[in-house]
Specification:
Elements: E1 9-13, H1 18-28, E2 32-37, H2 58-61, E3 67-71, H3 77-89, E4 92-95, H4 101-105, H5 109-115, E5 120-125, H6 139-145, H7 168-189, E6 194-198, H8 199-206, H9 208-216, E7 250-254, E8 265-269, H10 275-281, H11 286-289, H12 296-299, H13 303-314, H14 319-326, E9 333-335, H15 339-344, H16 346-350, E10 354-359, E11 363-368, H17 391-397, H18 402-410
Parallel strand pairs: 1-2, 1-4, 2-3, 4-5, 5-6
Antiparallel strand pairs: 7-8, 8-9, 10-11
Bound molecules: coenzyme A (COA).
The site of coenzyme A has 23 residues, from helix 1, helix 4 and strand 5.
Length: about 425
């Protein structure tokens, strides 16, 4: 069975998280991803947040599966010559350096096109053109500047960042889509093109519904927000705690064991259609006949009380028992699953969403596999490369003799 992207060669100049997420995904789909790393050190994440001394960190291994590693000093003359051959050899080049880093090496987009007009050249930057285009950016900066932090958090609390890496991994996903789209276009046009994704844009795209609400505010209060009707709205979309964004009231409530287990909670949504069954199961059949409670409009100003009553019931059950009882009643709900529970969940192992990988230096570890499943091109997750593991093999593939490789090594170019 051939892989969907078999035959596509990717020159991977990425580091940290956003870029590596993108190229890892393309590698899972079968592309040959050649990761270019600085001799001696490589991607800085190899050494960051290490759990085992002198062994590539999980940060690195979990973002660089299925790739090959070549070391190359792209600032040295010989390194630049080799890099030029790699550009000729590959279909796609991906980078997420600080703005201007590749230009400073002498590899501008114009130069890359001269070397290989079919090249798709893809970059992640923190910001698009504008006042901040030269800034270096990490995950939380993107979350703050893309609208996520201002709309996340307790009603009267600080702006909050989320644990989901929406700026880094989120933008890496956008970049992967841009690359395959440009490759598809190249099939017809014969030419490559530039793909750029800004992390601010990626986060804002994920906050689309909040931009929707920003415009709705001009026409009256946002009735699905907990500020309505008892609180006040300002000029911008407020933080809404754990309220459901979809117009159906939802909240996180405690379950049995919450006193000692920080994840003994469940998210419940009191969707109008399922409310009668929900009310009955929590012992509030009385609400159904009472005009003070029977309609969504009547309940809206009293949602806190509704969820307090629901919580009295959920606290008598585990989050999994609540899930089992509510699901047949069509009540949308979801237990708060810890990372430990997710790591141990058999169904996620069965689908390859959580995978155990063996590494020659660290031994077995868990990783998150490909979240996108193709029926004819299933992903096989292979370990990340050691620094420079494939240098000789890759340099030979692009035409360097054994003597040339040895000379390049001797002068520190690889
Ligand atoms: C992530 C980021 C903040 C890290 O910044 P940093 O650690 O200072 O690293 P830089 O990207 O500036 O690169 C450092 C230098 O290494 C050089 N370098 C990288 N690989 C090299 C190689 N193989 N050979 C020689 N030099 C190399 C770069 O050219 C750059 O040199 P320069 O500053 O002289 O131009 C920055 O790269 C960035 O803003 N990237 C874009 C946004 C992004 O992707 N952020 C999310 C990361 S998860």
């Amino acid at each position: 069975m051939t892989k969907a992207l078999e035959g596509v060669r990717i020159l991977d100049m990425t580091h940290v998280q956003s870029g590596p997420t993108c190229t890892q995904l393309l590698a899972w789909f079968g592309a040959d991803v050649i990761k270019v790393e600085r001799p001696g050190t490589g991607d800085a994440t190899r050494g960051q947040l290490r759990d085992i001394p002198d062994v590539d960190s999980l940060y690195f291994t979990m973002l660089n599966h299925n790739k090959r590693s070549v070391t190359l000093n792209t600032k040295a003359d010989t390194g630049k010559e080799i890099f030029t051959k790699l550009i000729e050899h590959c279909d796609v080049m991906v980078e997420n350096f600080a703005p201007g880093a590749l230009d400073r090496m002498g590899f501008t987009w114009e130069r890359i096109q001269e070397i290989n007009p079919r090249m798709v050249y893809a970059s992640v930057k923190g910001f698009g053109p504008g006042p901040y285009e030269d800034c270096k950016v990490y995950e939380n900066v993107a979350q703050c500047t893309g609208g996520s932090a201002s709309t996340t958090g307790e009603l009267d609390g600080f702006p909050m960042v989320t644990g989901a890496q929406i700026g880094d991994t989120g933008t890496g996903l956008n970049l992967a889509l841009g690359i395959v789209t440009a490759l598809f276009h190249r099939e017809r046009s014969g030419r490559g093109q530039r793909v750029t994704c800004a992390m601010q844009d990626g986060v804002l795209n994920l906050c689309r519904v909040k931009m929707r609400d920003q415009q709705r505010i001009a026409h009256g209060p946002l009735k699905e927000y907990p500020q309505y009707p008892n609180g006040e709205f300002g000029v911008a979309v407020p933080r809404a705690g754990n309220a459901s964004g979809g117009g159906q009231p939802g909240w996180i409530v405690k379950c049995k064991g919450w006193e000692s287990d920080p994840d003994a909670y469940i998210y419940v949504i009191t969707q109008a259609a399922a409310f009668p069954a929900f009310a009955k199961v929590i012992g509030h059949e009385d609400w159904l006949e009472d005009p003070e409670w029977s309609t969504p409009e009547a309940r809206l100003p009293k949602l806190e009380q509704v969820f307090d009553e629901i919580e009295k019931w959920t606290m008598t059950k585990t989050k999994f028992e609540v899930m089992e009882i509510l699901n047949p009643l069509n009540v949308p709900c979801g237990p708060i699953l810890s990372m430990k529970e997710l790591a141990e969940e058999p169904s996620l192992r069965a689908t390859g969403t959580v995978v155990e990988v063996d590494h020659p230096e660290r031994g077995k570890y868990l990783t998150v596999g490909n979240p996108i499943k193709l029926s004819d091109s299933p992903s096989e997750v292979k370990r990340s490369p050691l620094l420079g593991e494939h240098t000789d093999e890759i340099l030979s593939e692009i035409g360097l003799s054994a003597d040339e490789v040895a000379a390049a090594k001797a002068e520190g170019a690889v």
